[in-house]
Design goal:
heterodimer; B: mainly alpha; 6 helices; flat
Chain lengths: ~500, ~160
Amino acid sequence: MFDSLLDGLLLVLQWKAFLYLIIGAFIGYWVGILPGIGGATTLALMMPFIYKMTPAEAFPFLMGMHSVVQTTGDITSVLFGVPGEATTVAIILDGHAMAKKGEAGRALGAALTSALLGALIGAAFLAICIPIVRPLVLSFGSPEMFMVIILGLTCISTLSGQGKRSLLVGLMCAGLGFIISLVGQDRQAGILRFTFGQLYLWNGVPLIPMVVGLFAIPEIVELAIQGTAIAGDLPSGKLVKGVMQGVRDTFHYIFLTVRCSLIGTFIGVMPGLGGSVAQWVAYAHATQSAKTPEERAGFGKGDVRGIIGPGAANSKEGAGLIPTVAFGIPASTSTAVLLGAFFILGIVPGPDMLTKYLPVTFSLVWTIVIANILVVAASLLFLNKLAGMTTIRGTLIIPFLLLLTFIGGYTASNDIGDLIVTLLAGGLGYLMVKYGFPRPPFVLGFILGHLAETYFYISTTRYELEWLYRPKVLVILALAVLVALYPSIQKKRLAGREALHAPKG
Amino acid sequence: MRLKGRAMMSFCIMLVGAGVVIQAAQWPFKAALFPLIVGVPVFLLALIDFLLAAFEKSDKEHATIDFKFSGHEDKALVRKRTVSIFFWILGFFFLVIFVGFPIAVPLFVFCYLKLGGREGWLVTLTATFISWATFYGLFVWFLNVPFMEGLIQKAFTALGVHG
């Protein structure tokens, strides 16, 4: 085992493989920063280049690119409120709020450090847990997967607001997200649902234009209303001092970082759930770390823990490789494309990857580690300059943000429909922000709608109602109920504590 | 009963939920199962929220984990700026439809900076050039993204006029 680990490192450190890793990481860096161009698309575009490479050269190239996309996607999300990737949306809530308060440097420092730590934890998990995780993944059937989705939605719905109506509104928004995900051709009966005669909608409402519009357009409107730079009228000197503070914040909340990394790892391992889900569940968990309702109210308005949580969930990139490498089951779209690379290179994922090709498997782990360290170190060097971009006046930055928003939305399928979806999602996002409807549960409901429907349908047709009595389903259901009741329990506990400490008489 | 924006929005979500249920009732079981499971609770939750919001006496805002638009003393100015930015967004969209991305991008940046931002000529022209060069160099030349033609170019092509 140790020999294979060392062999894997030596494979990556060969000059040609290392050069490909750097090229891949460089491409991934820019793909992450540009909104709309997803990691999966870029992996697919790079496929023709690997035909003449050996596995030891091709994997550092592809993994080097794939593993840094989310890390740098955080930069665009924090600075401009435009999601760099679909997997970096959650970080906008607090990251961009901090940028607006003049703490872009601190937010970026925290985002990159937590993403790096998350990636390292995910890589370590990949190295250690391949043999252990196999029974866990295989023991989860459709009913359990459906319940995991319900648990995730309950987490984010409960924690996305304050007061008695938060759960009500959160669940309503999650349900609305589910409804939007219903658009398109139904997979079970082939019925066209809510397509309004549009061929474009047969495949459903695309994710990228939806999240880009939903999050970017309200930020552009806000910038126009403010009439100042993103960071308001704050002096630029304040911005460039925060990077190291952000790094220190991540270590200050190290247990939160580790917990959110483990959440990302667990969700990353589950086939189909993917990174878009992990970030929100990690965010919901980060909000749980607030000890008082006042502290909780600070989330979404620039709490650094709201950055560290989704940043650390970057561990899902490494964990997502586990089912792909060990069982040939891709955990996400990106890993599905990566699976194609395995076949192009003549490697069949499965038990062979844990025996015959174990050094290659470990070279994937080392690639994630090295690529992330290189990119974060390079970013930290000129992060202060990037943070300075938030002081550019609004009138100059708005047309460029609109440009990124439109192109980011359009590149999803290069169709005019993408632009219409971006605009409509932008309008909806504006109304949701204006009237206090939380966007996180809506997005999560929208992302998980297809999967939830598939798992629910399979569970019902295969087990009828008996799936509801499966032990694991009941355990996850109990967890969901506990999560839903958590704010009330926490409130009562706090009230009890305050009553205890209140002066008598 | 005074209908506030929040109540109106809950009412719209309620209508969406009802629409889903009514529509799904006409589909075969396989296709209707999940929409019904989702549509009914959404309708009920939206109904409850609508009633709560409509009959709520205080105008207190409910805290959500999301950002809030900046509070500004001058409401009329906020409204004016909001309407203005939505016009610019729609303007860019129609520009893309009519002339396509390659022309719409520099044209929009130029118009926004000169008319919307009242920037000087040097800043406007430099920013317009940078936007065009970035767009063309990165998306057209390097990434080879296929951008659609505008309606005007399509009309010229249909008339047999080639540029």
